[in-house]
Specification:
Radius of gyration: 18 Å
Number of helices: 9
Shape: globular
Length: about 280
């Protein structure tokens, strides 16, 4: 049995994907690493994925597909995932190995215990190139620590404090039960990844460790300002999908804290797009 499946969407990622995979390998046999080659053509991404599958059988799996974009790579990972929990780590990011041990220990406790956990939330660190001080996104003010909680226990999210793709690990079966699927050939779908399952999440746990390392600094990165402006059509597409998701699930949002959080998140995404 695999405790955790980690999908790594890779598109021409030769320059940095090894570092990402190597940090995840420290999780050992309980982790399944799904290296999704999303139709890479410019470099040796596909060959590197195959190399890891060959060298780490039973842990690494190479998945090759026609180019479908980041969302379709996440979908492919989910279709192939055998782990009880599912995480996405982008190929230019990585995880902190000490925090990783705590994450696995926490998941293990729930899998072998008598409580079902739908979503595990951890901190993430902005690894901004050239920055001396690394900004950490934590949830101290918003979420109870080291205990199972529900939406009714959620406190106030501060301005700029959000649960992002980097923060979450979802129960794999929950994603499948809510018919989760990201759109093809669309950037900024990480917002949908977090947003869609929220109404189905009943039991959460906040582990206060700086687990995910989110790299910022490449000129071709999707969060680069010029790149974002050039892809405004995709930003708008994501906005519309999120509005539709909210409308579809509004009748399920009986808890005021969940409703408020989903509206607040939607408001922020629309504000970013507008700016």
């Amino acid at each position: 049995m695999k405790l955790l499946s980690v999908a790594i969407p890779c598109y021409n990622s030769e320059a940095y994907m090894r570092h990402c995979i190597d940090t995840l390998l420290t999780g050992g046999d309980e982790v399944e690493i799904l290296i999704v080659d999303d139709g890479s053509v410019k470099d040796n991404t596909a060959e590197i994925a195959d190399e890891y599958e060959k060298n780490y059988p039973g842990i690494c799996r190479a998945i090759h597909q026609e180019n479908g974009g980041h969302g379709e790579a996440v979908n492919a990972g989910l279709r192939n995932a055998q782990g009880i929990y599912y995480k996405v780590v982008d190929s230019d990011d990585w995880v902190d190995e000490n925090a990783y041990k705590e994450v696995l220990a926490t998941l293990r406790r729930f899998v072998y215990g008598n409580q079902t956990l739908d979503m595990l939330i951890c901190n993430f660190v902005y690894e901004k190139q050239g920055a001396k001080h690394k900004k950490v996104m934590n949830y101290h003010t918003a979420l109870p620590k080291d205990q199972i909680f529900t939406w009714k226990d959620v406190k106030v999210f501060m301005l700029g404090q959000y649960i992002l793709m980097h923060s979450v690990i979802y129960r794999t079966e929950l994603l499948r039960q809510c018919n989760f699927e990201l759109p093809k050939h669309t950037f900024y779908v990480d917002n949908i990844f977090v947003y869609w399952p929220l109404p189905y999440v009943k039991k959460m746990y906040y582990l206060d460790v700086d687990f995910y390392r989110y790299f910022i600094g490449r000129d071709d990165q999707s969060v680069n300002e010029k790149v974002m402006i050039s892809r405004i059509d995709q930003q708008i597409r994501v906005n519309k999908i999120m509005i539709d998701l909210y409308a579809k699930h509004e009748s399920m949002l009986s808890c005021p804290q969940l409703k408020e959080y989903m509206l607040h998140y939607l408001e922020t995404i629309q504000m970013v797009t507008s700016v």
